[in-house]
Design a protein that fits this description.
This protein is an alpha+beta fold. Helix content is 42%, strand content 11%. It contains 19 helices and 14 strands. Strands 6-7-8-9-10 form a 5-stranded antiparallel β-sheet, with no helix packed on it. The chain has a 3-stranded antiparallel β-sheet with strand order 5-4-11. α4 crosses α5 and α5 runs antiparallel to α8.
Length: 557
């Protein structure tokens, strides 16, 4: 037995384990975690050999392998692609839209002046963000870049956005967004691998492309390769460029590094599928094996054997095999394959041996369901959301949606803070600098700048399984002062309550004008009851009653 294994079995020396072990009658007794999760003497723990690592060792330096495996699973479809696509669609949707909300009291403005300024800022940003001039490649607009950046972050662990400045024909703004895949950021002379080394300048280290101060851990610069390190068709020599994290004059970020750390002192992100890569890959193999077994079981192949003294040739063989299934002259004569309806003639003396791939698949659905539940739990995504299968009651489906949507505000908050808000602030800085928007004191005081940059971001809301119930619940919350109409409008369909009121005023005025001109306009008293099914529709009546009974039984359970 090796010395290391012997030490693991015997545990730490008495002088090191004095706090976790007690002596009784000359024998050592484990106490606290030493008798449970930290035990080194229990038989169930002896095979658990590990050595704890720092975030750099566990996450940052394994990024290249994790990224390539996660992307491979994503390109193969299945649960990996379903999880990433669902998360992107839910968090980003059609795009997170900014709604300027400046601190007009701190800026000394009236509410009317603030509303007018917000209207101008929104108009200018809508022009820039809605066009493809905001993209360095001029392919996508700002909201499409949101989806691309978020999806790349989930798949690769992190994504980088640079903010180059150059003029484009047709746009008064020079600000652009250049998205880089995570592999482009790396340590110089690393050949695309995740490595770390000491920086050339000062007391700093480069951790997989992120240059940090050794004493404080502050990020000071990033290192990017001149081309994608995994691009085998590009034979150019890879060179690395160092870009400082913040501008020396403005203090604004030069690089937007978008990722979600799991631990302090972690400088690179890991893919969303990282904790469940093994389970997803094993499930993929299992499903492929079952599919292959079912396919082979469905094949019907006939073998014809002939006697050595029989000179008759089965002329029907060639006619019984499809043209695209016949073996070619380059295929060995014994290279026979299971095919539907295939007939093969065996050489004299050869006999086929039957192999039955059938198995008991009665537990197939239950097993896959259990694995998907575990994978979904690791991703904070209920199985119903992951598989898009709402096969249970309304209450169960509603519970799955509600539980999943608990994480969406946090995911949006992180993405807005890392990508959307910095881009908006960079846009405002340029718009104010070139005189298209007026903001006194913007470049003089960081607090004043923050007051001008305050902004709310609105995204898509949770899907309503029963809109009538949701509206009734919102009405009660407002009456009990548990919520506001503005908040309910934003959460229900992402609309702005103030804009809804303005639009409703226009609609009411237009209806009044129509009535004054002699037209007809239905009143609220004439409107049909939205709760009542169509008259004479017995099928609708039965369906409504069935839904009521289901909801009643669910609430009772």
């Amino acid at each position: 037995m090796s010395e290391e294994r012997k030490r693991m079995r015997e545990g730490p020396p008495p002088e090191h384990g004095a706090r976790s072990e007690k002596r009784r009658g000359g024998a050592q007794m484990a106490a606290g975690y030493a008798n449970h999760g930290a035990s080194k003497t229990k038989s169930s723990m002896l095979g658990w050999m590990l050595s704890g690592g720092s975030p750099e060792d566990d996450s940052d330096l394994n990024g290249a392998t994790l990224r390539q495996r996660a992307r491979d699973l994503d390109m193969g479809g299945g649960l990996a692609r379903a999880g990433v696509s669902t998360e992107t669609t839910t968090v980003i949707g059609t795009g997170l839209i900014p709604k300027p909300a400046i601190d007009y009291e701190a800026l000394g403005l009236t509410e009317e002046a603030a509303k007018e300024w917000e209207k101008i800022a929104k108009r200018e940003f809508s022009f820039w963000s809605g066009s493809k001039f905001c993209d360095a490649a001029e392919k996508k607009n700002f909201y499409q870049l949101q989806s691309l950046a978020f999806r790349s972050m989930l798949t690769s662990g992190d994504v980088i956005a640079l903010l180059p400045m150059y003029k484009s024909v047709g746009s008064p703004y020079a600000l652009h967004i250049q998205l880089l895949e995570a592999d482009r950021m790396g340590t110089p002379d690393s050949n695309g691998e995740s490595t770390s080394k000491d920086a050339d300048s000062g007391n700093a280290r480069i951790v997989d492309g992120v240059e940090v101060e050794s004493d404080t851990g502050r990020v000071v610069a990033y290192h990017f390769s001149s081309r994608h390190p995994l691009n085998e068709t590009d034979t150019r020599q890879i060179e690395y460029t160092r870009i400082e994290a913040y501008g020396k004059d403005t203090g604004m970020p030069n690089v937007l590094h978008i990722y979600v750390p799991d631990r302090p002192e972690q400088y690179r992100g890991v893919p969303m599928m990282a904790p469940v890569i093994e389970q997803v890959k094993q499930l993929e193999r299992y499903l492929n094996a079952e599919l292959t077994a079912s396919l082979i079981s469905s094949m019907f192949t006939l073998f014809i054997t002939s006697d050595p003294n029989d000179n008759n040739i089965a002329s029907a063989v060639d006619d019984s095999v499809e043209d695209d299934e016949q073996t070619t002259s380059s295929t060995p004569q014994n290279a026979l394959h299971m095919r539907a309806g295939a007939i093969y003639e065996l050489a004299p003396g050869q006999k086929p041996e039957g192999v039955s791939p059938t198995r008991n698949n009665s537990a197939f659905s239950t097993f896959v369901d259990a694995v998907c539940t575990q994978i979904g739990a690791s991703m904070e995504m209920p199985k119903e959301i992951l598989l898009k299968a709402f096969t249970k009651s309304y209450s169960a489906s509603r519970g799955a949606l509600t539980e999943y949507w608990r994480k969406i505000p946090r995911a949006r908050r992180d993405f807005i803070a890392d990508f959307c808000q910095p881009v908006y602030e960079a846009f405002l800085a340029e718009a104010i600098a070139i005189g298209r928007i007026e903001a006194p004191g913007f470049f003089d005081d960081p607090v004043i700048r923050a007051s001008w940059c305050k902004c709310n971001w609105i995204g898509s809301t949770m899907q309503q399984l029963d809109p009538l119930k949701e509206v009734s619940a919102a009405e009660k919350r407002i009456l009990l002062n548990l919520s506001t109409q503005e908040r309910e409008a934003a959460e229900f369909n992402g609309s702005d309550w103030n804009e809804n009121i303005i639009q409703r005023k226009r609609e009411v005025a237009a209806c009044a004008e129509l009535i004054a001109m002699g037209g007809e306009q239905g009143s609220e008293t004439d409107a049909p009851d939205p709760n009542a099914p169509p008259e004479g529709d017995e099928e609708a009546d039965n369906e409504t009653e069935a839904m009521k009974e289901e909801v009643t039984s669910d609430e009772s359970a």
